[in-house]
């Protein structure tokens, strides 16, 4: 009789008389490493979604300073906003049948609603200090960036909360303006930036492809930089720092730390059917 013992297998359905029932081999507590190899180009491209949202928030702030200083006319701003909104609407809905009549009714309802709410918004924070409003607006915009949907399903993502935070921040800023037209124009811009523009950005990223999305990102960065330079130059350094952090430092750290990431697998894991 051969004294050679068969190799122990980590299975329950097979009889292994050469080993006792409570035997545990070395492979039972195996530890394997699994990580996703992410290229630096992929990480840099993924960061552009956050960059676009940062530009949206800072563009709103730049427009607020332009309106408050009298360097931007509310009528001109509304015309540009409407043209951009109509253009984005046509581009993003060109591939499907749209109901222009119902959308026109929605736009008319919005104009009536905001027009009625403008006097209340203008006097909403009259008893609150400007420093408090600035701090509140900054916190709201930062929270919006955190909760915004960038195409990744995680628990912190909440498009509804993100939208409400952006609108609330715009209301706080609009309440410091002195004219009804300026208040109406700023809230209109906020709705376009925080409600319509994310849909258009997602359409460019998913449908139109990477070249168009990169072109959109470049355009948004340029417009934001020019706006900050003209109306809020003291925030230009913050904008540059945010761009470097978001587009260089964080993607580089993400790629570097992937080499240190590992998942431990063993008999405690849930059974999965592979190749399905």
Structural account:
- The protein has 276 residues and is mainly alpha-helical.
- It has a domain at 59-205.
- 64% of the residues lie in helices and 0% in strands.
- It contains nine helices and no strands.
- The protein has helices at residues 40-46, 48-68, 74-92, 100-122, 130-147, 159-174, 180-208, 210-231, 236-257.
- Helix 1 packs across helix 9, helix 2 (48-68) packs parallel to helix 6 and helix 2 (48-68) runs antiparallel to helix 7 (180-208).
- The longest helix has 29 residues, at 180-208.
- It is elongated and about 90 Å long.
- The two termini are 43 Å apart.
Describe the main β-sheet briefly. none
Number of helices: 9
Residue runs with pLDDT of under 50 for 5 or more positions: none
Order of helices and strands: HHHHHHHHH
Structural class: mainly alpha
Helix content: 55-70%
Overall mean confidence score, pLDDT: 80
Work out the number of β strands.
Answer: 0
Shape: elongated
Task: Report the end-to-end length measured between terminal Cα atoms.
Answer: 43 Å
Quick overview:
This protein is mostly helical and 276 residues long. 64% of the residues lie in helices and 0% in strands. It has a domain at 59-205.
Keywords:
single chain, 276 residues, mainly alpha, 9 helices, elongated
Task: Break the fold down into its secondary structure elements and pairings.
Blueprint: H1 40-46, H2 48-68, H3 74-92, H4 100-122, H5 130-147, H6 159-174, H7 180-208, H8 210-231, H9 236-257
Helix pairs in contact: 1-9, 2-6, 2-7, 2-8, 2-9, 3-7, 4-7, 5-6, 6-7, 7-8
